[in-house]
Amino acid sequence: MFRWFAVGIFVSSLAISAYRRRLARRLTGTIRRRQEPAGLIVGRLLVTVPLFGGVLAYLANPAWMDWSSMALPVTLRWAGVALGVLVVAGVHWVLTTLGANVSETVLTKPTQQLVTAGPYRWVRHPL
After folding, report:
1. Domains, the chain, ordered by start
2. Is 73 helix (H, G, I), strand (E, B) or coil?
3. DSSP secondary structure, 3-53, as one string
4. pLDDT (tens digit per residue) in 4-63
5. d(CA 104, CA 28)
6. Which of 27, 39, 83, 113 might form a disulfide with 100, Cβ 3.0–4.6 angstroms?
7. What's the alpha-carbon Rg for the chain, to the nearest Å?
8. What residues have CB less than 8 Å from 21, skipping those under 6 apart?
């Protein structure tokens, strides 16, 4: 059952991100990833492939990730579900606050502005 909550949280976060990125591309254009330095692309791949690979492997078939499992009390698992729901709300808040500044790359758009509202009031990179 908890795996389905994890699927819902993961898909919801990705859907919010995809919607906000598409909206920003429509408003301010896009920067091609191939414009980034090669070292940055390789570094991002070294981090994201294992991170998302592990998550996707668990969501597809939890047995593939048995080596990393640990027995947790049900109350702690429910706390994880609640935290996941807060994460979805946080992703929505962060990306909505960014507005047209959302980008798939670390490079900046010519029209990009410094955001100091919402969660960016307290943290430089809340996501």
Report:
1. 2-121 (1.20.120.1630)
2. coil
3. HHHHHHHHHHHHHHHHHHHHHHHHHH----GGGS-HHHHHHHHHHHHHHHH
4. 898 899 999 999 999 999 999 898 888 777 788 888 889 988 998 998 899 899 889 989
5. 13
6. 27
7. 17
8. 102, 103, 104
Selection from 27, 43, 20 nearest residue 97 by Cα: 20
Put simply, whether the predicted model's pTM sits higher than 0.85 gets the answer no
Burial 2-16 (b: 16+ CB within 10 A, else e): eeebbeebbebbeeb
Q: Which residues contact 60 (CB under 8 A, 6 or more apart)?
A: none
Query: Tokens representing 17?
Result: 């991100």
Tokens describing residue 125: 């990179």
- Cα–Cα distance, 20 to 100 (Å, whole number): 8
Which of 84, 73, 119, 81 is closest to 98 using CA atoms? Answer: 119
- The CA-CA-CA angle for residues 24, 27, 34, to 5°, reads 60
